[in-house]
Amino acid sequence: MTNKEKIIQNYIEGYNQFDIDKMVADFDESIVFENIQNGETNLILNGIKEFTAQAEKAKEYFSERKQTITSLIQDEITAIVDIDYYAVLAIDFPNGLKAGQVLNMKGKSIFQFLDDKIIKLTDVS
């Protein structure tokens, strides 16, 4: 397992455990986070403080959540991770999703690295 794989595994474990400190342990201070859904960017966060604030808020949305890596391709700078995503909603959402509803989705996370720090994370679903 490479160092990048360990860093990604740590991030995903932190995500699954609702442990924000573990999630951001290998983030660069100026991390850029992007969320792309159906081809449209619907969220951009700049810096570790913005990411942490959003991650804390998102914890309230789910009673359970689990990302499972199904494949990982990497070069020196980038790692592309295919993910199976499972979650149970904790609240009702404006789009009609209800508390207790189960989500099963496939997605992709693209991690970009500089000196063993994550400088950009893009979630695509």
Can you characterise this structure?
The structure is a single chain. Helix content is 23%, strand content 51%. It is α+β, with helices and mostly antiparallel strands and 125 residues long. It has a 6-stranded mixed beta sheet, with helices on one face.
Largest sheet: 6 strands, mixed
Which class of secondary structure composition applies to the elements? alpha+beta
Beta-strand residue fraction: over 45%
Please state the CA-atom Rg, rounded to the nearest Å: 14 Å
Give the topology:
Elements: H1 3-16, H2 20-23, E1 27-37, E2 40-46, H3 48-58, E3 62-74, E4 78-89, E5 102-114, E6 117-124
Parallel strand pairs: 1-6
Antiparallel strand pairs: 1-2, 3-4, 4-5, 5-6
Key terms:
125 residues, alpha+beta, six-stranded mixed β-sheet, 23% helix, globular
Please outline what is shown here:
23% of the residues lie in helices and 51% in strands. It is built from three helices and six strands.
